[in-house]
Write a structure and sequence with these properties.
The complex is a heterodimer of chains A (about 325) and B (about 375). Chain A is α/β, with parallel strands linked by helices. Chain A has two domains: about 210 residues, Rossmann fold; about 80 residues, no CATH class. Chain A has a seven-stranded mixed beta sheet with strand order 6-9-10-3-11-12-13, sandwiched between helices. In chain A, strands 2-1-4-5 form a four-stranded antiparallel beta sheet, with helices on one face. The longest helix of chain A is centred in the last third of the chain and has 16 residues. The two termini of chain A are about 35 Å apart. Chain B is an all-alpha fold and about 375 residues long. Chain B has a single domain, classed as Orthogonal Bundle (ABC transporter involved in vitamin B12 uptake, BtuC). Helices cover about 70% and strands about 0% of the residues of chain B. A two-stranded antiparallel sheet of chain B has the order 1-2. The two termini of chain B are about 35 Å apart. Classes of the chains: A alpha/beta (about 325), B mainly alpha (about 375). At the A-B interface, helix 3, strand 8, helix 5 and helix 7 of A face helix 9 and helix 10 of B.
Chain lengths: ~325, ~375
C-alpha cells in the first residue's frame, strides 16, 4: 500500500511517521521540545478485519481540553478507530501513546484505568439500575461490607450538578425511564466521576430531538471547559461546527485531514468526507488544515511533507494548550 | 436519606417521562411486586381459613406448610440469582438428589448416628452441589452454551449418576440425630428447625442480593452484560459464581431433604426445578433478567404449597392445585410484562417467543435498543 503518512506533517509528533527518528525531531524546530506531549497520540495505527483494511496509517493526536470531532462517511472507519482507542479492539499496526508514553490497550478496562472513557448512547448503561448505581457500576463504594448508598448518592448528585444537569427528576430513578439526552448525561457524568481525561462519544446526538441535542452539546462544552479532552463522532455537521475545536476527517480508513474548525467550512468537510481530498485544504500552504491521504496520489508524495508541511507543524502545535 | 433525593429541577427543559409514580430505586419495582404477591397469598389463606377455619388455621397445619416449603425456599434463593442474570437452572432437583446420594453414601461409610457424621454429610452434599454448579457456570459463561441446554444436560447427568451409584434404589443411611433435630425438630415451640435454617439462607440471600456489590452486579449483568463488561465487571466470572451458588444451595437442600424424608428420594424430584422456577417467577423475578427479589420468590413458592394443603383440607381434588398454579404463573408474568412495558420507555413488550430464543441463543438478556 501507499504510505502517505510519511507526508503527514500536519501533526507535531507524527512528523516522523511511524518511525520517529532524531532527524524527524530536528526537522521540527517550531515544536517546542519542552512542550507537554499530547494527551493521546496514534502513530501509524492500522486495523485489518481479514482482507479488509478498516484503518490504515492513522496518525492522530488528541490535545488536552479540546473537542476533536471525528467525521466520515459510513464505513470510513470511525467506529473502528474509537473501538481501538477504547480498548475493545487492538490495532494490527502502529502504536498508541498516552501522554507521550506507549500504551497497550488490551481491554476496555485498561483504557478506562488510563482515563479513557467511552460513552455509548445505548450500550453503556443498565436500564434496570438507577442513576447512582449506573454511575458507580464497577467502582461501588463500600462500608461495612455493604454498599455505601448515601455517599454514592451524594457524589453522584454533586457530579450531575457540576455538569449542570438539572433535568433529572430523581437520581434514584431507573436509567431505562430517562430520555436519550439524559442517558447521555448520566454516561458522561459517570466518565467524569471516574476521573476520565478523554471522553469518547459515539454519535451522542443521534436520535435526539433539538432540545436534547442542545443539552448534550452543552455537556460537551462543560467537559472541555473542565480540561477534559473529548473525541466525538458525529454525522451531524451542524453539531460538529458548534462544538468542536478540531475536526478529523476519515475517508476509507485513512485520515483525510485534521484541522482546527475555524479553518474548515461545512462544504470543505463534506468534500473531504466524500472524496477524501479538498482542493481548498491542500491548496493553502501554511495552513494547519492538511490533506494527508489522497487515494489518487502516489506513495508518499514528498511534496506534501515539504516546507509547507513543516510550517504547519509549528502552527498546529501552537494550537494545543 | 435513602428516600426520594432529587436533583433540583428549576428548568425542566425536557418533558419528564410519564409514569404513575416517581420511580424510586430499582428495588422498588421488585418490592411492589413482592407486595402484590403477598396480597395474593393472603387472599388464598383467607379463603381457606374462611372455608375451614378449624383445620386450616391451626398451628399444626401451618407448621406443615412451612416445613414443606423450606427446601423449595432454599432452592429458590439460588434460582432467583440465576434468573436475575437472565439464565435458568433446570438441574437443581437432580443436583439435590445427587448430592443427597453421595452424602448418604459418605455418612453410611462413616457409620455413626451423631452430629459428626451429619456435619460431614452436609459438607459432602454442599461440595457435590458446588461441583455441579461450577460445571453449569463454566459451560454457560466460558463455553457459551445456552443455560437452558447446559442445565438440561446436567439435569440428566446428575440424576443418571445418582441412579448409577445407587442402582436406582433409594438409600436411607441418615443419622437419627439429623432426622430428629433437623428433619422434624423444632427450634422453639412449634417453629421447625428446617424452616429456621431456610430462613437464615433466605436472609443471607436477601442481604447479598440487595446490599452488596455482588448483588448489584447480578442485576447489572442481567440487564446489560455489555455495559457491565465496559464498566469493568468480570461478567464471565460472575456468572460462574452465580451458577456455583445455585448448585451449592441445591447441594445443601439435598442434605435437608435427606433429613426430612430420611431417603434420597431419587424418583421424587422430577418436577422440583419447575416448582422452584414457577415460584420465583410468580414472585416477580423477570425471566428476561435484571429484575427480581428473593422475598418475592419465597412468597412465590408458598403459594403452590398453600393451595395444595388447602385443597386437601376443603376436600377438593388436590390435582386442582396444578391448574391453579399454572394460571397464577401465567397471570403473574402477564401482569409483570404489562407493567414493565408501561414503566420503561422504549422497553417494548417482550413475548414468550423472544424468551425462548433468548435462552436458546444463549445470549444474556441484551435488549436491542435503537
Amino acid at each position: 500500500m501507499t504510505t502517505p503518512s510519511a507526508a503527514d506533517g500536519a501533526r507535531p509528533a507524527s512528523s516522523g511517521g511511524r518511525a520517529p527518528s532524531p532527524a524527524a525531531t530536528t526537522t521540527n524546530p517550531a515544536g517546542r521540545p519542552a512542550q507537554e506531549p499530547p494527551l493521546l497520540e496514534l502513530r501509524g495505527v492500522g486495523k485489518n478485519f481479514g482482507p479488509v483494511r478498516a484503518l490504515s496509517d492513522i496518525d492522530l493526536t488528541i490535545p488536552v481540553g479540546q473537542v476533536t470531532a471525528l467525521v466520515g462517511d459510513n464505513g470510513a472507519g470511525k467506529s473502528t478507530l474509537i473501538k481501538t482507542v477504547s480498548g475493545i479492539w487492538q490495532p494490527d499496526h502502529g502504536e498508541i501513546l498516552w501522554r507521550g508514553r506507549p500504551v497497550h490497550l488490551h481491554s476496555p478496562k485498561a483504557a478506562t484505568d488510563l482515563g479513557i472513557a467511552t460513552v455509548y448512547q445505548d450500550l453503556a448503561l443498565c436500564d434496570n439500575l438507577d442513576i447512582v448505581q449506573n454511575m458507580f457500576l464497577g467502582r461501588e463504594e463500600m462500608k461495612y461490607f455493604q454498599l455505601d448508598e448515601i455517599s454514592m448518592e451524594l457524589a453522584a448528585k454533586q457530579t450531575l450538578a457540576d455538569l449542570s444537569v438539572v433535568t433529572v427528576r430523581s437520581i434514584r430513578q431507573p436509567v431505562g425511564s430517562l430520555s436519550g439526552g439524559q442517558r447521555q448525561a448520566v454516561a458522561v457524568a459517570k466518565a467524569v466521576m471516574q476521573q476520565a481525561q478523554l471522553v469518547i462519544m459515539d454519535e451522542p446526538t443521534a436520535a435526539l430531538g433539538v432540545t436534547q441535542t442542545r443539552v448534550v452539546l452543552e455537556l460537551i462544552d462543560q467537559l472541555s471547559s473542565r480540561g477534559i479532552a473529548v473525541l466525538v463522532i458525529s454525522h451531524n455537521l451542524n453539531d460538529v461546527v458548534n462544538v468542536a475545536d478540531r475536526v478529523a476527517v476519515l475517508y476509507l480508513g485513512r485520515l483525510a485531514a485534521v484541522a482546527p474548525i475555524k479553518d474548515l467550512d461545512t462544504g470543505t468537510i463534506v468534500e473531504l468526507m466524500t472524496t477524501g481530498r479538498s482542493s481548498r485544504v491542500a491548496a493553502t500552504p501554511g495552513e494547519p488544515a492538511h490533506a494527508t491521504s489522497q487515494p489518487g496520489a502516489g506513495p508518499g508524495t514528498p511534496t506534501a511533507g515539504g516546507t509547507p508541511g513543516n510550517g504547519t507543524v509549528g502552527h498546529h502545535t501552537g494550537e494545543a494548550p | 436519606m435513602t428516600g426520594q433525593t432529587t436533583v433540583p429541577s428549576p428548568v425542566p427543559t425536557e418533558e419528564a417521562p410519564s409514569d404513575e409514580s416517581p420511580t424510586g430505586r430499582l428495588a422498588r419495582l421488585a418490592r411492589l411486586q413482592a407486595l402484590q404477591i403477598i396480597i395474593v397469598l393472603a387472599v388464598i389463606v383467607v379463603i381457606f381459613a374462611f372455608l375451614k377455619p378449624s383445620s386450616f388455621l391451626t398451628v399444626f397445619n401451618i407448621r406443615g406448610i412451612v416445613q414443606n416449603t423450606a427446601i423449595l425456599a432454599v432452592l429458590a434463593v439460588g434460582m432467583t440469582f440465576v434468573i436475575i442474570t437472565g439464565g435458568i437452572d433446570l438441574s437443581v432437583g437432580s443436583v439435590l438428589v445427587f448430592s443427597g446420594v453421595v452424602a448418604d453414601k459418605a455418612m453410611g461409610a462413616m457409620g455413626g448416628q451423631g452430629w459428626g457424621v451429619a456435619i460431614v454429610g452436609a459438607l459432602v452434599a454442599i461440595g457435590c452441589g458446588l461441583g455441579w454448579g461450577l460445571v453449569n457456570g463454566f459451560l454457560v459463561a466460558r463455553a457459551k452454551v445456552p443455560p437452558l441446554i447446559v442445565t438440561l444436560g446436567t439435569l440428566g447427568m446428575a440424576l443418571g449418576l445418582a441412579e448409577v451409584i445407587t442402582g436406582g434404589v433409594d438409600l436411607r443411611n441418615v443419622p437419627t440425630v439429623m432426622v430428629n433435630s433437623v428433619g422434624f425438630g423444632n427450634i422453639v415451640w412449634q417453629v421447625p428447625t428446617l424452616a429456621v435454617i431456610a430462613a437464615v439462607v433466605v436472609v443471607i440471600g436477601i442481604v447479598i442480593l440487595h446490599r452488596t456489590r455482588f448483588g448489584l452486579h447480578t442485576f447489572a449483568i442481567g440487564s446489560n452484560p455489555e455495559a457491565g463488561r465496559r464498566s469493568g465487571l468480570n461478567v464471565n466470572g460472575h456468572l460462574i459464581m452465580i451458577y456455583a451458588l445455585s448448585g451449592l444451595l441445591a447441594g445443601f437442600a439435598g442434605w435437608l431433604n435427606l433429613a426430612f424424608f430420611q431417603s434420597t428420594t431419587i424418583g421424587g424430584q422430577s418436577s422440583t426445578n419447575l416448582s422452584v422456577i414457577a415460584g420465583v417467577v410468580i414472585g416477580g423475578t423477570s425471566l428476561f433478567g435484571g429484575y427480581g427479589s428473593i422475598l418475592g420468590s419465597i412468597i412465590g413458592v408458598f403459594i403452590p404449597a398453600t393451595l395444595q394443603n388447602g385443597f386437601v383440607i376443603i376436600g377438593v381434588q388436590p390435582f386442582w392445585q396444578q391448574v391453579v398454579v399454572g394460571t397464577v404463573l401465567i397471570a403473574a408474568v402477564y401482569v409483570d410484562q404489562q407493567r414493565r412495558s408501561a414503566a420503561l420507555r422504549g422497553g417494548g413488550k417482550r413475548k414468550m417467543g423472544d424468551l425462548l430464543s433468548h435462552w436458546v441463543s444463549g445470549r444474556q438478556a441484551v435488549p436491542a435498543r435503537e
